[in-house]
Structures are given as C-alpha cells and as structure tokens.
Amino acid sequence: MSEASAHAIDHHEPVTSTGIPNKKVLMWAFLGSDCMFFGTLISTHLIYRKISATVGGNFLDIRDIFDIELTSFSTFILLASSLFMALAVSAIHKGNLNSTRWMLFGTIVFGAIFLACQVYEFTHFVHAPGNELTLSSYRGEPHVFGSTFYVLTGTHGTHVAIGVFWLIGWLIYSFTGKMSTADAMDIECCGLYWHFVDIVWILIFPVVYLMEYAF
Amino acid sequence: MATESLKYLNPDSETEVKTKVFPRPGQNTKGIINWLTTIDHKKIGIMYGMAALFFLILGGLEALLIRSQLWNHNMDVLTNREYNQMFTMHGTTMVFLVIMPLSAAFFNFIMPLQIGARDVAFPRMNTLSLWCFIAGGIVLNLSWFFTGGSPAIGWFGYAPLTDTRFAEVLGDMGPDFWIFSLQILGLASLLASFNFITTIINMRAPGMTMMRLPVFTWMTLIVSFLIILAFPAITIALVELMFDRTYGTNFYDFLEGGKPHLWQHLFWIFGHPEVYILILPAMGIVSEIIPVFSRKPLFGYGLIIFSGAIIGFMGFAVWSHHMFTTGMGIVATSAFSILTMLIAIPTGVKIFNWIGTMWGGRIRFETPMLFALGFITMFMVGGFTGIMHSSVPIDAQHQDSYFVVAHFHYVLIGGALFGLFAGFYFWLPKLTGKMLNEKLGKFVFTLMFIGFNLTFFPMHYLGMIGQPRRTHSYNEGHGFETWNQIATIGAFILGVGIVIGVYQFVTAAFNKKLKPAGKNPWDARTLEWTLSSPVKEYNFARTPIIKARDQAWENNYGPEENHSQKEPLDDHGVHMPDRSWYPLITGLGFLGLVLGMLFHQSVDVNTGEIIRNYTPAIAGGVVAILGIIMWAIEGPAGYHLFPKEDEE
Ligand code: HEM
Ligand SMILES: [Cu+2]
Question: Residue B233 CA to chain centroid, in angstroms?
C-alpha cells in the first residue's frame, strides 16, 4: 500500500450516474450556452440589416465590397476541417497515434487558412477604396452594418482561433509520448467544440453573406 | 476534526510536484493558504457566503443613503448625481453581489451533500468561479475612485445613458467599470452553473434518481440552466456596449443609426430570467424547510418541481413586460401581457403546495420556519402586484413609479432574502455544528419583518399617488412626506435587523456559548442530515445507496427496506483531489485583463488623440492563459483518506 502512495495517484474517470463522462456533459452545457451567445449576435445583425439599409439617403449595397468567392472558399475549407477533426477522433479511439497526429495537423492547417481568409477579408473591407466598411461607418457615413458584421464574424473567428490553439496543444502533447486512448474522450470534447463552431458558421454564411444576394 | 481516527496514507502529497513553479499545497495545509487554494465545495460555499454578506451590508448602507435623501421634500443629503450613483450601485450590488452569490453559497455547500457526492464535478473550476465573483465585486466598487465615480446609469444601464457623448462628467469611467464587472461576474456564474449541472446530472449517489432529488437540488439545476441560457444575452449586449464606448461602433447610438430600444430587449431577455434566478433558490430552500417544521412530507413534490421547470421555461417568454410603455405595438404587447399572466399560475401552484404541506401538520415555529412563513406571505404580496402590472393599461400607471419599487422589493427582500435567511438559520447548525440562539433569531425576524413592511408597504401608495422612481427629490405639496418618512424609519429598522442577523451568522462558528447541534437537530428529512455537524472534509466515508426520497427521515422512521445502505468500504480509501494555486492565479489574470482593458485608453495632451496601450491587458490575459495551461498539466491528482467505518 504505502509504496503505491509514493506515486501520484492515477486518476480513473469516475463512474457517473448517467454513464456519460463529466467533461462531455460540461461541453454540451457550454455549447448550449454558446448557442445563446451567437443567437444574440445573429439577431442583432438581422434586426439592423433592414433598419439601416441606407447610407446618406442611398441604398446600401454591401455586395459592392463582399467577395463571395473568397468567403465560399473559406467556408468550404472550414467544413473540410471538420472531416479531419472527425478522423482525428476516430483515430485516437483506435489508438492510432500517427494518424491522430496527421489529422490534428490537417484540422489546424485548415482552421488557420480560414482565419487567414478572415483577416484578409477584414483588412480588405476596412481599406476598400471608396467603399470603406469600418466598425462605425460605410463609405464614410455613420452606419451600423460594420458594427454588427465585425463583432459577429469576429466573435466567430475568436472561437476558431481558440479551437486552433486547443488543437495545437493536443498536437504538442502527442509528441510527449503520453498520448493514449485514455485521451480519446478529451479529444472528442475538443472535436465537439470544433464541429459546433463549424455549424455556427454554416448559419452565419447564409444569414450574413448569401442573404445579401437573395433579398 | 478527529484527526487521529484518520489514517493518512500519503501525508505529504507534495513530494511528487515540488519541482513545479508553485508547489501544490499538501493535504495538511493550514491557515490562509488552505483557504486560498482550497477546492472543497464547503469552504468555497463559506467564502461565497461571507463575501456576499459583506456586500449585503455595503448595499444596505447605499440604500439607507437613498432613504435619507427621500426623508423630506427637496433634501440635500446627496446631490443629483450621487443619488443616481447610489441607486445604480445599490441595485447592481444587491442583484449580482448579494442574492446571486448567497444562492451560490447554498448551492455549493448543500447541493453535493444532498445528492451524496464527495464534491462537485470540477472542484478547481468551482474555486475559479469564486475568485471571479470576488474580482467582479472589487472591480465594481473600484469605480468609486476613478473619473466620474460610480456608474449613474441604473442597474439596467439603459441606452443612451451609457453613451459617452452624454456623460455628465467628461471621460466618465463609471459605466466601463459596470460593464467589465458584470462581464467577469457573468463568467463566474456561467462556470459555476456548468459545474452544478454536471454535478447534479452525473454525481448522484446510487439510487438517487432524479425524482428522489431534494427540491433544493432541483431548483439548483433549474437555476443553473437559466443562468447558462440567459447570461449570454447580457454578455453580448455588454460586449456591444463596450465596443460602442471604446471603439465607436453604433449598436446603441441613435445619432448614427443604432437603436437604444435593442438594449432594452437584450437586457430584459436576460433580466426577466434573472429574477427567477434570484427567486428559485429561495423557493428551493423554503420547500426544504416547510416539511421539516410541519412534520409532513412535501405536498405535491412532482408538481413543485414541474412548476419550477415551467416557470424557468416561461421566464424566457415574458421579458417585454418591462417595456409595455415603449410602444412595441398591440400584438407584441398583448402577447407578453397574456404570457405574464400565465406565468403567475405555476407560481401560485407552488404556494398552494406549501400551504398543503402545512395543512394538518404539527407546525413548530422556530426561526427557519418563521422566515419561511415570512417568505410565503411577503412573496405573495409581491406576486399580486406583479400580476397587477401584467395588465398593460394598469402598468402604464405603474411604470417608473414607486409601485414597481414596492413590487420588486416584496419579491426580492420578502421573497429571496427572507428565503436565504431561512436557509442560514436552517443549515448553519450543519455548517458550524452549533445551534444558533433561537431568541436572537426570533428577534431578528421580528425586526426584519416589521422594518421591511414599514419600508415597502407605503411605497405602493406613494406610487399610486404619483411618486416617480429613480428621482432625486420631490417638491412640497404632493403629500409624499409622511409615507416617505415612515419608509425611511422602516428601512433603518430593517437595517438593524439585517446587521444583527449577519453578526449572528458570522460569529456562529466562534461563539463558545452555543449548544452543539448533533447530526440532525431539526429532525429533518434530506441526506445532508445523516452526516455529522460540521461535515467532515470528505463528506461521506462510504457512498450511500439511496432507497427513498426523504432518506434521513426514512432511516429514522421508515420501514426497513427504505433504509439507506452504504457501499462497502474498499481498501482504496476516499479519494480527495489536491488543492491548487491555479484557480487563484487564473482569477488574478482575469482581474488584470479587465483592469488593463479599463485603463488602456489615454488622451495625448498635445494632439488630443486617443492613445491605446494594451500591454497590461495582454499581460493579464497571458497570466490567465498560463494559469489554465498549468492547471491542465498538473491534473486533479489527489490523496486518499481512510476514515473509520462510519465516521461521517
Ligand atoms: C407573479 C410573478 C411576477 C409577475 C407577473 C411580475 C411582473 C412584473 C412586471 C410586469 C414588471 C414591470 C413593471 C414596470 O416596470 O412597469 C416587473 C418588474 C420587476 N419585477 Fe416582477 N413579476 C413577478 C415576479 C417577480 C419576481 C419573483 C421577481 C424577483 C425575484 C421580480 C422582480 C422584478 C424586478 C426587479 C422588477 C423591476 C425591474 C426594473 O425595472 O428595474 N418579479 N415585474
Ligand atoms: Cu420581469
């Protein structure tokens, strides 16, 4: 007995009432809450979209600066990253460390491409000659579109960035030699988060971008 | 504690981690470090409670200043602006720094004991919630010392009062302090709620099915869901407001296309669920106390829980009753009016259940029961006025008058605070191991009950004859003076009552004259009463196997097959997680981040341009992130305790 005590106590996942691991319940609760965060942001955007459709008496056509090809591309990239994420989770469940590592890497790269596109888009919009969209104005006139647009998509981008850093943490951890199937559940939680952030984008893309071309 | 009976397997659990930057405190840590690094839900509950009682006194002093200013017509106790600051700080303090953390104190201390758990699901995260709450309290009250002093925008912070261009004082920082303190308090509440949800769903003792959970635990669960679904609305609203004030966005700026009306919607989408976040814990406490002091099981257990859930659900669909006079249009106004009337039904159901519980019971009028009865009666008065202003034309008369002030103080003091005080008198014997002085308790109740009614009942009348709320003074000739003077006298009586009560709670642990409580002094019904008072650090020596709803009662009076059993004592011992520094460090990091953001702007004296310096904020953020990383690396770890067979 007392020899065993010299080692830090190995921590088994405790048996839970529902059989679902605690961390997973935590993650689901968090995602439920996060729905309300994005719900509030998206509502704000939609409420203002029509109310403030004009600038200086002229109808605001945000399509003048939108680059729908680029955004469609980055949307596709983000969707594809979810595939890598799913594969990473399945690989770690099987204990295939090498494959887990590559799939994590793929998710990170695709997440980073998405972020790069967003950074490009933001700088491009702010400096678009004659069509500057800033936090407080459009074409030099006070306006709300920039406020709701940047804060909404920026919050989403922050989520993606946090996910990327989290994944990088796992990638580094995979080189310490400690990673095993015991970590599968933790990586699965990370995956839940990643897929959720993806799904939110699937909502934002039509609501913020495509809709400008439809109505 | 009977230390000699505990066989410590690993008395120095630090050996393994000495090499780390912050050595992990071992299991025998004493004194201040023990409190700073604790992850024990009971100690965390105590700290929540102590801090909240401190803020209760602070918020009470602010209220007494308000009441002094209203003593007579055209008084000059406070200036206009000071008066606005006072009611803003009073409201914000009472809601976020008193009632919510007092509820959190009970959630922390009582809920794990009621479900037969050794701690919450994520003990270190629980500690982080505590430190975030304390940081929020500090940030809010720091506002007194900087440009413009405290916020003067009301606890609801309506736009455009928060617009920088309309600031009474140039460069007023009050609203910024308000924004950031609410953000960090929101973080505290969110983290705590995720934790409680996981704990209640996942950490129940074997046999503790959902329909055997004590009502207080059920209310904890419902409130936690309300928090995680309602707080995001205000968090985002505050983010938008922060952007408006700092980076010039136009969310609420009506001069540039924003709509102040949107702020009201977002605030009340949070705000109405918030009032249920404030009241449901007290309802849970009262549902525990009334059966015990009536010596009957709770009448309509399922119905009480179901109506609690319905209240929580419908609470998200009535927010616009705070905006009846803003001109939302007939359809919206009528819909919200009807829903508001409907939500009174589940509330009424609960009241009838409590009455049904007492009906035919052998009622003992001890202090917890007195406060519980005070709760029922006073909350009913507040409920009635609530239903009155669910009617739109009537509300048009009530809106912004003292009638509304009367309404919400009847539900918040007569309701929430009385319920929480009942909880203190009920559970402090469990916490300290000593019976409180019954005579003093009754005296406190009498003072509070009389003082409270003297203060707030006249406000109904004052509101009806036209005294506006949030207004610094009134002129002669309206006939407001007499009733305001009665209210002010009442407020001081209530204040004295609260101070004596708080004194009684805080000194209970040190008062040598008090009688020992024993395991179950009230002959109560739920699981926490099977444990010794005060509760051992590991709660349950062996995990109980639950057989019935009112387990402590069944063990004493029920048939043999309803007695709880215990899981066999394995030679593994009781696993206790290790203490940790990282919650505190992460909390300090958040505090640094918030303060850094608050002070990141300055104005160049020569050019008048705004200079931004993010270094302190980033430094704070880095500390927080490092704290979290180290936290993940250190892991829960832990040590084992070997209590004797039934030492619990
Ligand atoms: C029967 C249930 C209730 C109904 C029908 C109800 C209805 C209302 C209505 C319509 C208002 C708006 C009055 C106005 O501004 O003109 C109001 C205000 C308020 N109620 Fe209630 N209420 C109920 C219960 C509660 C409870 C349980 C609490 C808190 C524990 C609460 C706290 C408040 C507060 C704080 C305000 C004022 C907010 C402000 O303007 O600053 N109410 N209530
Ligand atoms: Cu309400």
Answer: 18
CB B554, CB B548: distance < 8 Å = yes
CA distances in angstroms from A137 to A155, B51, B158, B244, listed in the order given: 19, 45, 23, 13
The CB-side HSE value for B405 (13 A sphere, CA atoms) comes to 29
With 0-12 / 13-18 / 19 or more C-beta atoms within 10 angstroms meaning exposed / middle / buried, residue B248 is middle
Q: What is the C-alpha separation between B467 and A188, in angstroms, rounded? A: 59
Sign of the CA dihedral with B23 first, then B26, B30, and B35 last: positive
Give the Å distance between the CA of B396 and the centre of ligand 2: 15
| B103, B404, B420, B459, best to mutate for ligand 1 pocket (most atoms within 8 Å of CB) | B404
Strands of B367-486, DSSP E: none
> What are the sequence ranges of the domains in chain A?
25-41+63-210
Which residue is closest in CA terms to ligand 1's atom 11? B322
B466-506 pLDDT per residue, tens: 999 999 999 999 999 999 999 999 999 999 999 999 999 99
Q: Establish, for the pair of chains A and B, how many residue pairs have beta carbons separated by less than 8 Å.
A: 133
Partners of B434 in beta bridges: B516
Three-state DSSP state, A59: strand
For residue B121, the chain A residue with the least C-alpha distance is A22
The encoded tokens of residue B582 equal 């990282």
All residues at 6 or more sequence positions from A165 whose CB lies less than 8 Å from its CB, including other chains: none
Contact B62, B90 (CB under 8 A): yes
Domains of chain B in start order, with CATH, are 42-519 (1.20.210.10)
Task: Give B562's DSSP letter.
Answer: G
The token pair at B143 is 């506002």
Q: Which tens digit of pLDDT belongs to each residue from B535-546?
A: 998 899 888 999
Residue of A40, A47, A48, A126 for testing the chain B interface, max B β-carbons within 10 Å: A40
Question: Chain A residues with CB inside 8 Å of B257's CB?
Answer: 48, 51-52, 142-144
List pLDDT tens digits, range A21-80: 999 999 999 999 999 999 999 999 999 987 766 666 667 788 888 899 999 999 999 999
Prior bond to B232 cis, omega within 30? no
Please tell me the distance in Å from B229's CA to the nearest CA on chain A. 5
Interchain contact, A47 vs B262, CB within 8 Å = yes
Three-state SS at A137: strand
Cβ B101 vs Cβ B129: under 8 Å: no
DSSP for B544-586?
Answer: EE--SSSHHHHHHHS-GGGS-EE----TT-EEEPPP-SHHHHH
Q: Are B583 and B562 in contact (CB under 8 A)?
A: no
The Cα A183–Cα B103 span in angstroms is 35
Residue type, B45: G
Distance CA B464, CA B446 (A): 28
For the domain covering A25-41+63-210, report its CATH number: 1.20.120.80
Two tokens, residue B323: 């905006």
Measure Cα distances from B330 to A128, A174, B318, B457 in Å.
Answer: 44, 61, 15, 32
